[in-house]
Amino acid sequence: MNKEKTKQLYQRNKPYLxxxxxxxxxxxxxxxxxxxxxxxxxxxxxxIRDLKEQIAIYxxxxxxxxxxxxxxxxxxxxxxxxxREKYGMxxxxxxxxxxxx
Length: 101
Fold this sequence. Notes:
The protein is mostly helical. The protein has helices at 2-74, 76-87. The protein has one domain (2-87). The chain contains two helices and no strands. Helix 1 (2-74) crosses helix 2 (76-87). The longest helix is centred in the middle third of the chain and has 73 residues, at 2-74.
């Protein structure tokens, strides 16, 4: 009698057994495969933060360069100073001595 009840119970729950097995398999995949996905999400998030910091730094440099360009456009003395300091240019009748540190 006990065997018959077990067999009836198994056949009655048999359709659900397929779904339970599928859920367990996908749960295991998510549990073990999900760790690497979560780790990758955190790595990408850290990269995004680093790139945003770099963007902020470059925006400051752009603003500084734009200010310098405006000064050079309006002031001939600043333009000559920049040409002498950065590029070692000189006027025709002038000697320039460059001292390196």
